[in-house]
Amino acid sequence: MHKALLWMAISLPTPFLASGQVDVVALHGKIWTENPSHPEAEAMAIAGHRILAVGTDAEIRKLAGPETKTLDLGGRRVVPGFNDSHVHFFWGGQGLASVQLTDAKSRKEFTDRIAAFARTQASGTWITNGNWDEQKWSPVELPTHEWIDAVTPDNPVWVQRSDGHQMLANALAMKLAGVDRNTPDIVGGTIVRDGQGNPTGVFKDAAKDLIERVIPPPTDAQVDAALLTAQKYALDNGVTSVQDMGFTGGHAADMEARVVRGYQRLMAEGKWHVRVAARFLLPDAARLQNLGIMTNFGNDTLVIGSLKAFADGSLGSATAWFLQPFDDQPGNSGLPSDELADPVKFYSELKAADLAGNHIATHAIGDRANKTILDMYERLEKEDGPADRRLRIEHAQHLRPEDIPRFAKLHVIASVQPYHAIDDGRWAETRIGHERAETTYAFKSLLDSGATLAFGTDWFVAPINPMLTIYAATTRRTLDGKHPEGWFPQQKLTVEQSVHAYTMGSAYAESQDDIKGSLAPGKLADFDVLSDDIFHIDPVKIKDVTVVTTVLGGEIVRSSLK
User: Fold this and answer.
1) What's the pTM?
2) Residue 14 confidence (pLDDT)
3) How far, in Å, CA of 489 to CA of 158, rounded?
4) Which residue segment(s) compose the domain that 141 sits in?
């Protein structure tokens, strides 16, 4: 078995070798290669930043020279570096340094945490991020600006719900933005109002720009600090590649530019390691097309040229676009995004991007949003002809049963975030009922139908920890402990299927499966050493497994081993 792998390595051309020397041999491991013919190996030889050979300890040891370094894997499980197919990297890093509201369990705790954080901030400093979740409070209710006005008289507040699709502003933030009862509603968004028509402080989807337009942009130093914080968090969790889905709102283009410059600055300073595929918003695609930039323009560390579109909002914010009304809001079926509000224009932008060689990923949550995007993708195929498009639907969250097989038929990648299933599973049936929930987060059904799955987290929305993602996909145990056998357990995946989606699936989704996703000769030497063997323990225990060593390009970038 291993001799076949080794022979393949030696027979490959090796232009990536600087001197013909093997730089590192990694020995004594249980290496999951992601090669279905030879899934297990003991050792690897690394030259430069790439894998030269995979095989047995004895075979690989023979390749070592006098200058070769040895990495003793200590009999531990090794997997390809995790590739998070959907993150918001700057926001995530920025949020780690802001007020933490994710686990606040009541209105009082929500208010107290904002008050305590405000006391640490200079007057006039904006308080942002937060990631609150009203579903964890009793009673479940949306916050209002009155909850926090008294404790934040000198600091404008703009804190987001955990899904990022609705925000809470305090009175000062609304005053600075010039928003009051006379402010008209926004296409693709909602200003939540009280019985007298006054804004409560909650703004959904496109309406968020009413406040965001007056928030001062971050400085270069603030951008760099947020990115470095995000990088450390990713590497600590064994995430060696991320697909940065960027920003929303009226200032998205400016923020995209600021963050891409940040990546470049940190690369030039030798401080950047995580591999990034950065996507720009579909309405801004003309900037790329005018320069002739296609998907994966860049190098092994940073690529651009792919695009992100939005079809709707989120389930938690009741802005996901459904064919039927929500069970708990009979008059509301959600709404299309501001981009999709004009479907003719939206499709013309999809088509222009497709013809320009820019791969497209579209956020779609509700069943109507998913159907609409699948219809448009099908039209692209018919009008523009066969091509390797790597079309994606981000989240693919709530699907009609008849739309599930269309992913495979249309070669559409389902870019999914399993942690959302065990989070939303606490309350989703209250909103959409049991029948519709049967085909929500339908990972197994999608896979069985032949679709490609790519795993991610949507961080900042969920933890970037891959072990929690794999735990969620394999157990479907909701966070409230009410489904010990799994919420809709027929949708559970195996550990092998989950790791594949997190490595090869994600690499395929970003069109970099030729250099990433498996531990094979010629590919980048990105891998993780785990504290336990996730393939041979009860999946319930996977959430407690840690990444003890992260290797990127053959170099140890983080290790907890002594």
Assistant:
1) 0.91
2) 41
3) 38
4) 90-212
